Amino acid sequence: MKRIFYGENENQFGELRLPDHEGPHPVAIVIHGGFWREPFRLDNMTQVAEDLTANGIATWNIEYRRVGQEGGAWPGTLTDAADASDYLTTLADTYPLDLNRVITIGHSAGGHLALWLAARHCLSKNSELHTTDHPLAISGAISLAGVSDLERMYDVHQFREKALSAEPNNPTAELLQSTPEEQPVRYHDASPIELLPLDVPQVLIHGALDINVPVGISDHYHREAQEAGDFVKYVGLPEAEHFMLTDTTTAAWKVVLEEVETLISNL
Question: Is the entire prediction scored with pTM above 0.85?
Answer without folding.
Answer: yes
